[in-house]
UniProtKB/TrEMBL annotation:
It is a single-pass type II membrane protein. The keyword Zinc-finger does not apply. This is Exostosin GT47 domain-containing protein. Keywords: Golgi apparatus, Signal. Pfam families: Exostosin_GT47. The lineage of its organism: Eukaryota, Viridiplantae, Chlorophyta, core chlorophytes, Trebouxiophyceae.
Length: 456
Protein backbone atom coordinates (compact mmCIF):
# COMPACT_ATOMS: atom_id res chain seq x y z
CA UNK A 1 0.00 0.00 0.00
CA UNK A 2 1.31 3.46 -0.88
CA UNK A 3 1.79 5.98 1.89
CA UNK A 4 -0.22 9.24 1.64
CA UNK A 5 3.03 11.12 0.96
CA UNK A 6 3.95 8.84 -1.95
CA UNK A 7 0.46 9.14 -3.41
CA UNK A 8 0.67 12.93 -3.32
CA UNK A 9 4.14 12.80 -4.87
CA UNK A 10 2.94 10.64 -7.75
CA UNK A 11 -0.06 12.89 -8.35
CA UNK A 12 2.16 15.97 -8.52
CA UNK A 13 4.63 14.21 -10.79
CA UNK A 14 1.79 13.30 -13.13
CA UNK A 15 0.67 16.95 -13.26
CA UNK A 16 4.24 18.10 -13.91
CA UNK A 17 4.61 15.49 -16.65
CA UNK A 18 1.34 16.53 -18.30
CA UNK A 19 2.46 20.14 -18.42
CA UNK A 20 5.83 19.23 -19.89
CA UNK A 21 4.24 16.99 -22.51
CA UNK A 22 1.84 19.76 -23.55
CA UNK A 23 4.75 22.15 -24.01
CA UNK A 24 6.62 19.43 -25.91
CA UNK A 25 3.65 18.95 -28.23
CA UNK A 26 3.65 22.65 -29.03
CA UNK A 27 7.37 22.52 -29.82
CA UNK A 28 7.06 19.40 -31.94
CA UNK A 29 4.13 20.85 -33.84
CA UNK A 30 6.14 23.70 -35.39
CA UNK A 31 6.61 23.55 -39.13
CA UNK A 32 9.98 22.71 -40.59
CA UNK A 33 10.43 26.09 -42.24
CA UNK A 34 10.19 27.93 -38.92
CA UNK A 35 13.76 28.58 -37.84
CA UNK A 36 15.38 27.93 -35.50
CA UNK A 37 14.03 24.39 -35.30
CA UNK A 38 11.91 23.70 -32.29
CA UNK A 39 14.04 20.95 -30.77
CA UNK A 40 17.30 22.80 -31.26
CA UNK A 41 16.12 25.86 -29.36
CA UNK A 42 14.24 23.88 -26.70
CA UNK A 43 17.15 21.55 -26.08
CA UNK A 44 19.48 24.51 -25.69
CA UNK A 45 17.19 26.03 -23.06
CA UNK A 46 17.02 22.88 -20.91
CA UNK A 47 20.27 22.98 -18.93
CA UNK A 48 20.99 21.69 -15.46
CA UNK A 49 22.46 24.37 -13.24
CA UNK A 50 24.23 22.41 -10.52
CA UNK A 51 25.51 19.07 -9.31
CA UNK A 52 22.48 16.87 -8.76
CA UNK A 53 23.31 13.19 -9.53
CA UNK A 54 24.83 10.92 -6.91
CA UNK A 55 26.43 7.70 -8.19
CA UNK A 56 26.36 4.78 -5.77
CA UNK A 57 29.69 3.01 -5.27
CA UNK A 58 28.41 -0.50 -5.86
CA UNK A 59 30.31 -3.72 -5.03
CA UNK A 60 32.43 -4.88 -7.96
CA UNK A 61 30.17 -7.89 -8.63
CA UNK A 62 27.71 -5.45 -10.23
CA UNK A 63 30.23 -3.56 -12.36
CA UNK A 64 33.92 -4.45 -12.59
CA UNK A 65 33.45 -8.21 -12.44
CA UNK A 66 30.79 -8.05 -15.16
CA UNK A 67 32.97 -5.84 -17.38
CA UNK A 68 35.61 -8.59 -17.27
CA UNK A 69 33.24 -11.23 -18.65
CA UNK A 70 33.90 -12.21 -22.26
CA UNK A 71 30.75 -13.34 -24.07
CA UNK A 72 31.59 -14.70 -27.51
CA UNK A 73 28.93 -12.49 -29.08
CA UNK A 74 28.30 -9.07 -27.63
CA UNK A 75 27.33 -5.94 -29.50
CA UNK A 76 28.60 -2.59 -28.24
CA UNK A 77 25.08 -1.23 -28.58
CA UNK A 78 24.24 -2.89 -25.25
CA UNK A 79 27.13 -1.25 -23.37
CA UNK A 80 25.61 2.14 -22.66
CA UNK A 81 25.08 1.09 -19.05
CA UNK A 82 28.89 1.10 -18.76
CA UNK A 83 29.23 4.24 -20.89
CA UNK A 84 26.83 6.19 -18.68
CA UNK A 85 28.46 4.96 -15.48
CA UNK A 86 31.84 6.17 -16.70
CA UNK A 87 30.31 9.45 -17.86
CA UNK A 88 28.59 10.30 -14.59
CA UNK A 89 31.67 9.50 -12.55
CA UNK A 90 33.36 12.55 -14.06
CA UNK A 91 30.32 14.61 -15.09
CA UNK A 92 29.86 18.18 -13.79
CA UNK A 93 26.34 17.03 -12.88
CA UNK A 94 27.71 14.57 -10.31
CA UNK A 95 27.69 15.37 -6.62
CA UNK A 96 29.69 13.39 -4.06
CA UNK A 97 27.34 14.45 -1.27
CA UNK A 98 24.25 12.22 -1.27
CA UNK A 99 22.43 14.63 1.04
CA UNK A 100 22.65 17.29 -1.68
CA UNK A 101 21.64 14.95 -4.52
CA UNK A 102 18.33 15.11 -6.32
CA UNK A 103 18.81 11.88 -8.28
CA UNK A 104 20.66 8.64 -7.51
CA UNK A 105 22.25 6.35 -10.11
CA UNK A 106 22.51 2.60 -9.37
CA UNK A 107 25.22 1.30 -11.75
CA UNK A 108 24.84 -2.34 -12.80
CA UNK A 109 26.27 -3.69 -16.08
CA UNK A 110 23.25 -5.65 -17.19
CA UNK A 111 23.69 -5.80 -20.98
CA UNK A 112 26.98 -7.69 -20.89
CA UNK A 113 25.89 -9.91 -18.01
CA UNK A 114 22.76 -11.02 -19.86
CA UNK A 115 24.60 -11.84 -23.09
CA UNK A 116 27.29 -13.73 -21.22
CA UNK A 117 24.77 -15.82 -19.32
CA UNK A 118 22.71 -17.20 -22.18
CA UNK A 119 25.85 -18.08 -24.13
CA UNK A 120 26.91 -20.62 -21.51
CA UNK A 121 24.95 -23.16 -23.54
CA UNK A 122 26.28 -22.15 -26.97
CA UNK A 123 28.46 -24.02 -29.41
CA UNK A 124 32.02 -22.69 -29.35
CA UNK A 125 32.40 -20.44 -32.35
CA UNK A 126 28.63 -20.30 -32.94
CA UNK A 127 27.11 -18.41 -30.01
CA UNK A 128 23.63 -18.34 -31.53
CA UNK A 129 23.52 -22.15 -31.71
CA UNK A 130 22.29 -23.35 -28.32
CA UNK A 131 22.95 -27.08 -28.00
CA UNK A 132 23.65 -27.86 -24.32
CA UNK A 133 21.21 -29.12 -21.68
CA UNK A 134 18.08 -28.53 -23.73
CA UNK A 135 14.82 -29.51 -22.05
CA UNK A 136 13.05 -32.70 -23.22
CA UNK A 137 11.28 -32.01 -26.47
CA UNK A 138 13.57 -29.06 -27.30
CA UNK A 139 16.04 -30.22 -29.91
CA UNK A 140 19.64 -28.93 -29.61
CA UNK A 141 20.06 -25.93 -31.87
CA UNK A 142 16.32 -25.33 -32.09
CA UNK A 143 14.58 -22.01 -31.52
CA UNK A 144 12.77 -23.65 -28.58
CA UNK A 145 16.05 -24.49 -26.83
CA UNK A 146 17.39 -21.00 -27.59
CA UNK A 147 14.29 -19.45 -26.05
CA UNK A 148 14.57 -21.71 -23.01
CA UNK A 149 18.12 -20.48 -22.23
CA UNK A 150 17.17 -16.90 -23.08
CA UNK A 151 14.46 -17.02 -20.40
CA UNK A 152 16.91 -18.59 -17.97
CA UNK A 153 19.30 -15.70 -18.60
CA UNK A 154 16.48 -13.23 -18.01
CA UNK A 155 15.81 -14.84 -14.65
CA UNK A 156 19.44 -14.70 -13.56
CA UNK A 157 19.83 -11.12 -14.72
CA UNK A 158 16.68 -10.28 -12.77
CA UNK A 159 18.35 -11.71 -9.70
CA UNK A 160 21.34 -9.41 -10.21
CA UNK A 161 18.96 -6.44 -10.31
CA UNK A 162 17.22 -7.69 -7.17
CA UNK A 163 20.53 -7.98 -5.31
CA UNK A 164 21.56 -4.48 -6.38
CA UNK A 165 18.29 -2.99 -5.10
CA UNK A 166 18.54 -4.91 -1.85
CA UNK A 167 22.08 -3.58 -1.37
CA UNK A 168 21.01 0.04 -1.93
CA UNK A 169 18.02 -0.25 0.39
CA UNK A 170 20.05 -1.93 3.13
CA UNK A 171 23.20 0.19 2.96
CA UNK A 172 21.78 3.65 2.19
CA UNK A 173 18.86 5.67 3.58
CA UNK A 174 17.92 7.57 0.42
CA UNK A 175 15.61 5.07 -1.32
CA UNK A 176 12.95 5.29 1.36
CA UNK A 177 12.45 9.05 0.99
CA UNK A 178 10.50 8.74 -2.29
CA UNK A 179 10.22 4.94 -2.58
CA UNK A 180 12.94 5.05 -5.25
CA UNK A 181 11.26 7.71 -7.43
CA UNK A 182 14.54 9.67 -7.44
CA UNK A 183 16.63 6.59 -8.28
CA UNK A 184 17.45 5.22 -11.72
CA UNK A 185 19.14 2.24 -13.31
CA UNK A 186 20.20 1.70 -16.93
CA UNK A 187 18.43 -1.21 -18.66
CA UNK A 188 20.49 -1.44 -21.83
CA UNK A 189 18.79 -4.27 -23.70
CA UNK A 190 16.10 -4.63 -26.34
CA UNK A 191 13.05 -4.71 -24.08
CA UNK A 192 14.66 -2.97 -21.10
CA UNK A 193 13.10 -4.09 -17.79
CA UNK A 194 11.16 -6.86 -19.53
CA UNK A 195 14.45 -8.48 -20.56
CA UNK A 196 16.61 -7.63 -17.56
CA UNK A 197 14.22 -7.45 -14.58
CA UNK A 198 11.28 -9.59 -15.70
CA UNK A 199 11.11 -11.64 -12.49
CA UNK A 200 10.90 -8.68 -10.13
CA UNK A 201 7.59 -7.58 -8.68
CA UNK A 202 6.49 -3.98 -8.92
CA UNK A 203 6.86 -3.59 -5.15
CA UNK A 204 10.57 -4.46 -5.39
CA UNK A 205 11.16 -1.82 -8.07
CA UNK A 206 9.29 0.86 -6.16
CA UNK A 207 8.99 4.01 -8.28
CA UNK A 208 12.51 3.79 -9.67
CA UNK A 209 12.76 4.99 -13.27
CA UNK A 210 15.12 3.80 -15.95
CA UNK A 211 17.34 4.97 -18.76
CA UNK A 212 16.61 2.72 -21.72
CA UNK A 213 16.13 2.53 -25.48
CA UNK A 214 12.82 0.68 -25.52
CA UNK A 215 9.92 3.09 -26.07
CA UNK A 216 7.19 0.77 -27.36
CA UNK A 217 3.72 2.10 -26.50
CA UNK A 218 1.73 -0.81 -27.97
CA UNK A 219 1.99 -3.22 -25.04
CA UNK A 220 -0.80 -1.56 -23.08
CA UNK A 221 -4.17 -2.51 -21.70
CA UNK A 222 -5.85 -1.03 -24.79
CA UNK A 223 -6.92 -4.08 -26.86
CA UNK A 224 -7.50 -2.15 -30.09
CA UNK A 225 -3.78 -1.23 -30.26
CA UNK A 226 -2.08 -4.47 -31.37
CA UNK A 227 1.60 -5.09 -30.62
CA UNK A 228 3.99 -4.84 -33.55
CA UNK A 229 6.19 -7.67 -32.28
CA UNK A 230 4.50 -11.06 -32.27
CA UNK A 231 5.25 -12.78 -28.98
CA UNK A 232 6.60 -16.31 -28.69
CA UNK A 233 4.34 -17.08 -25.77
CA UNK A 234 1.34 -15.28 -24.39
CA UNK A 235 2.87 -14.22 -21.07
CA UNK A 236 6.21 -13.02 -22.49
CA UNK A 237 5.68 -9.47 -21.26
CA UNK A 238 3.91 -10.25 -18.01
CA UNK A 239 5.79 -8.41 -15.28
CA UNK A 240 3.80 -8.16 -12.10
CA UNK A 241 0.58 -6.18 -12.17
CA UNK A 242 -0.77 -4.07 -13.71
CA UNK A 243 0.43 -5.15 -17.14
CA UNK A 244 0.27 -1.72 -18.79
CA UNK A 245 3.60 0.11 -19.13
CA UNK A 246 5.55 -2.74 -17.58
CA UNK A 247 8.42 -2.38 -20.04
CA UNK A 248 8.31 1.39 -20.55
CA UNK A 249 6.84 4.15 -18.41
CA UNK A 250 6.46 7.21 -20.65
CA UNK A 251 5.81 9.46 -17.66
CA UNK A 252 9.12 8.59 -16.02
CA UNK A 253 11.70 6.70 -18.08
CA UNK A 254 14.43 8.47 -20.07
CA UNK A 255 14.81 7.18 -23.62
CA UNK A 256 18.22 7.11 -25.33
CA UNK A 257 19.56 5.68 -28.60
CA UNK A 258 21.32 2.35 -28.47
CA UNK A 259 25.05 2.96 -28.18
CA UNK A 260 27.31 3.37 -31.21
CA UNK A 261 30.84 4.78 -31.34
CA UNK A 262 30.33 7.67 -33.77
CA UNK A 263 32.15 10.92 -33.12
CA UNK A 264 31.03 14.36 -34.26
CA UNK A 265 33.44 14.13 -37.20
CA UNK A 266 31.63 10.96 -38.36
CA UNK A 267 28.48 12.94 -39.14
CA UNK A 268 27.71 13.23 -42.83
CA UNK A 269 25.52 16.14 -43.87
CA UNK A 270 22.57 15.26 -46.12
CA UNK A 271 24.00 17.88 -48.51
CA UNK A 272 27.68 16.88 -48.25
CA UNK A 273 27.87 14.82 -51.44
CA UNK A 274 25.82 13.31 -54.22
CA UNK A 275 23.48 10.56 -53.12
CA UNK A 276 23.01 8.25 -56.10
CA UNK A 277 21.11 5.58 -54.13
CA UNK A 278 17.41 6.42 -53.96
CA UNK A 279 16.56 3.96 -51.18
CA UNK A 280 18.71 1.56 -49.15
CA UNK A 281 17.53 -1.71 -47.58
CA UNK A 282 20.58 -3.07 -45.75
CA UNK A 283 19.07 -5.98 -43.84
CA UNK A 284 18.22 -9.63 -44.36
CA UNK A 285 15.75 -12.15 -43.04
CA UNK A 286 16.85 -15.73 -42.51
CA UNK A 287 14.06 -18.18 -41.83
CA UNK A 288 15.07 -20.58 -39.07
CA UNK A 289 17.83 -18.33 -37.71
CA UNK A 290 17.91 -18.66 -33.92
CA UNK A 291 17.93 -14.88 -33.58
CA UNK A 292 14.56 -14.69 -35.29
CA UNK A 293 12.95 -17.26 -33.01
CA UNK A 294 9.72 -17.25 -34.98
CA UNK A 295 8.75 -16.33 -38.50
CA UNK A 296 7.10 -13.17 -37.24
CA UNK A 297 10.40 -11.63 -36.10
CA UNK A 298 10.04 -7.90 -36.65
CA UNK A 299 6.33 -8.35 -37.50
CA UNK A 300 7.69 -10.31 -40.47
CA UNK A 301 8.27 -6.93 -42.07
CA UNK A 302 11.87 -7.71 -42.97
CA UNK A 303 10.72 -10.65 -45.05
CA UNK A 304 7.82 -8.74 -46.57
CA UNK A 305 9.93 -5.69 -47.45
CA UNK A 306 12.59 -7.81 -49.12
CA UNK A 307 9.97 -9.67 -51.13
CA UNK A 308 8.41 -6.35 -52.13
CA UNK A 309 11.77 -5.02 -53.28
CA UNK A 310 12.52 -8.16 -55.30
CA UNK A 311 9.14 -7.97 -57.04
CA UNK A 312 9.17 -4.20 -57.65
CA UNK A 313 12.48 -2.47 -56.83
CA UNK A 314 12.38 1.31 -56.69
CA UNK A 315 14.68 2.70 -59.41
CA UNK A 316 18.09 3.44 -57.95
CA UNK A 317 17.51 1.42 -54.77
CA UNK A 318 19.77 -1.25 -53.27
CA UNK A 319 19.06 -4.22 -51.02
CA UNK A 320 21.17 -6.81 -49.20
CA UNK A 321 22.99 -7.33 -45.94
CA UNK A 322 26.51 -5.83 -45.69
CA UNK A 323 29.04 -5.28 -42.93
CA UNK A 324 28.41 -2.34 -40.56
CA UNK A 325 31.25 -0.41 -42.18
CA UNK A 326 29.89 -0.99 -45.68
CA UNK A 327 26.38 -0.12 -44.51
CA UNK A 328 27.55 3.18 -42.99
CA UNK A 329 29.32 4.06 -46.25
CA UNK A 330 26.20 3.19 -48.25
CA UNK A 331 23.99 5.25 -45.94
CA UNK A 332 26.16 8.27 -46.69
CA UNK A 333 25.32 7.78 -50.39
CA UNK A 334 21.58 7.14 -50.03
CA UNK A 335 18.62 9.51 -49.84
CA UNK A 336 16.32 7.15 -47.89
CA UNK A 337 17.28 4.32 -45.53
CA UNK A 338 14.66 1.71 -44.72
CA UNK A 339 14.86 0.90 -41.00
CA UNK A 340 12.80 -2.24 -40.58
CA UNK A 341 11.94 -3.39 -37.05
CA UNK A 342 13.90 -6.19 -35.46
CA UNK A 343 13.41 -7.39 -31.91
CA UNK A 344 11.87 -3.95 -31.27
CA UNK A 345 10.22 -1.30 -33.41
CA UNK A 346 13.39 0.77 -33.76
CA UNK A 347 16.96 -0.43 -34.25
CA UNK A 348 20.43 1.09 -34.09
CA UNK A 349 20.21 1.36 -37.90
CA UNK A 350 17.68 4.18 -37.42
CA UNK A 351 20.13 6.40 -35.53
CA UNK A 352 23.09 5.54 -37.74
CA UNK A 353 21.04 6.62 -40.75
CA UNK A 354 20.39 9.97 -39.08
CA UNK A 355 24.10 10.52 -38.49
CA UNK A 356 24.89 9.60 -42.09
CA UNK A 357 22.38 12.10 -43.45
CA UNK A 358 20.01 9.47 -44.81
CA UNK A 359 16.28 10.07 -44.25
CA UNK A 360 15.03 7.11 -42.15
CA UNK A 361 11.96 5.19 -43.31
CA UNK A 362 10.33 3.60 -40.27
CA UNK A 363 7.33 1.40 -39.52
CA UNK A 364 6.35 2.58 -36.05
CA UNK A 365 2.86 1.78 -34.88
CA UNK A 366 3.15 3.59 -31.54
CA UNK A 367 6.67 4.17 -30.33
CA UNK A 368 8.34 6.88 -28.27
CA UNK A 369 11.79 8.03 -29.38
CA UNK A 370 14.69 9.66 -27.52
CA UNK A 371 14.40 13.35 -26.61
CA UNK A 372 11.00 13.80 -28.29
CA UNK A 373 8.59 13.82 -25.36
CA UNK A 374 10.42 16.32 -23.13
CA UNK A 375 13.03 18.02 -25.33
CA UNK A 376 10.90 18.31 -28.43
CA UNK A 377 12.96 16.63 -31.18
CA UNK A 378 10.59 16.81 -34.20
CA UNK A 379 11.12 13.41 -35.79
CA UNK A 380 8.11 13.89 -38.05
CA UNK A 381 10.02 16.65 -39.87
CA UNK A 382 12.82 14.34 -41.05
CA UNK A 383 11.51 10.76 -40.77
CA UNK A 384 9.12 9.04 -43.17
CA UNK A 385 6.95 6.75 -41.06
CA UNK A 386 4.66 4.16 -42.66
CA UNK A 387 2.17 2.11 -40.66
CA UNK A 388 3.25 -1.57 -40.68
CA UNK A 389 0.03 -2.69 -42.35
CA UNK A 390 0.68 -0.20 -45.18
CA UNK A 391 4.19 -1.41 -46.01
CA UNK A 392 3.26 -1.99 -49.66
CA UNK A 393 2.98 1.79 -50.06
CA UNK A 394 6.73 2.13 -49.47
CA UNK A 395 7.76 2.79 -53.07
CA UNK A 396 4.89 5.19 -53.74
CA UNK A 397 5.56 7.27 -50.61
CA UNK A 398 9.30 7.51 -51.25
CA UNK A 399 8.77 8.30 -54.92
CA UNK A 400 6.30 11.06 -54.01
CA UNK A 401 9.00 12.84 -52.00
CA UNK A 402 11.63 12.25 -54.68
CA UNK A 403 9.28 13.92 -57.14
CA UNK A 404 9.00 16.95 -54.84
CA UNK A 405 12.50 18.49 -54.53
CA UNK A 406 11.23 21.17 -52.14
CA UNK A 407 9.79 18.60 -49.71
CA UNK A 408 12.96 16.51 -49.94
CA UNK A 409 15.10 19.57 -49.25
CA UNK A 410 13.02 20.52 -46.20
CA UNK A 411 13.35 17.00 -44.77
CA UNK A 412 17.11 17.01 -45.35
CA UNK A 413 17.44 20.46 -43.80
CA UNK A 414 15.50 19.34 -40.71
CA UNK A 415 17.62 16.18 -40.50
CA UNK A 416 20.84 18.20 -40.65
CA UNK A 417 19.63 20.44 -37.82
CA UNK A 418 19.15 17.42 -35.53
CA UNK A 419 22.17 15.24 -36.30
CA UNK A 420 24.43 16.51 -33.53
CA UNK A 421 21.86 15.50 -30.90
CA UNK A 422 22.52 11.80 -31.66
CA UNK A 423 26.30 11.66 -31.13
CA UNK A 424 27.32 9.57 -28.11
CA UNK A 425 30.94 10.70 -27.72
CA UNK A 426 32.07 12.73 -24.70
CA UNK A 427 32.32 16.42 -25.36
CA UNK A 428 29.87 16.37 -28.28
CA UNK A 429 28.01 19.66 -27.99
CA UNK A 430 24.30 18.98 -27.70
CA UNK A 431 24.96 15.24 -28.03
CA UNK A 432 23.36 12.22 -26.38
CA UNK A 433 25.13 12.59 -23.04
CA UNK A 434 24.24 16.27 -22.73
CA UNK A 435 20.62 15.56 -23.62
CA UNK A 436 20.39 12.76 -21.06
CA UNK A 437 21.54 15.19 -18.39
CA UNK A 438 18.92 17.69 -19.52
CA UNK A 439 16.17 15.10 -19.31
CA UNK A 440 17.41 14.06 -15.87
CA UNK A 441 17.39 17.72 -14.88
CA UNK A 442 13.68 17.92 -15.76
CA UNK A 443 13.08 14.84 -13.62
CA UNK A 444 15.09 16.33 -10.74
CA UNK A 445 13.25 19.65 -10.93
CA UNK A 446 9.88 17.93 -10.68
CA UNK A 447 11.03 16.00 -7.61
CA UNK A 448 12.49 19.15 -6.07
CA UNK A 449 9.12 20.84 -6.40
CA UNK A 450 7.46 17.91 -4.67
CA UNK A 451 10.00 17.96 -1.84
CA UNK A 452 9.49 21.67 -1.18
CA UNK A 453 5.71 21.60 -1.26
CA UNK A 454 4.97 18.26 0.37
CA UNK A 455 7.84 16.70 2.26
CA UNK A 456 9.04 19.83 4.04
Amino acid sequence: MQSPQVSVILALLACTHAAVVEVGKQRIGRKTHERPYASTSSIQRQRHTKQFVYVYDMPRKFTTDVAELSPEWHSKQYDYDQVLHEHFQSSPARTEDPDQAQLFMIPVYLGRYYNWFWQQWSTTGSPWEIVKDCAPGHAPGSAECWWEKWMWAKGNTSELVREALQHVKAQHPHWAKHDGADHFMVFSYDHARCDLAKDLQLAEMGHMFSIQSYGDLTLTNVPEVPPIIQRWQENNYTWGQPRAWACFRPDADVLVPMYYDFDAEDITSPFAAKRPVSMLLRFEYKAGDGKNLVEHYGHRLRHELIELWRADPLPGSKQGLRSPEETDADMARALFCVCAPGATQDTTRFFRAILKGCIPVTFFRANDLPFARHLGVPYEDFVLNIQPDDYMQLNAKVQHILDSPKQLWHMQEALQAQQRHFVWSEGAEGGVLANIERELSIRAQSLTGVAQSVIT
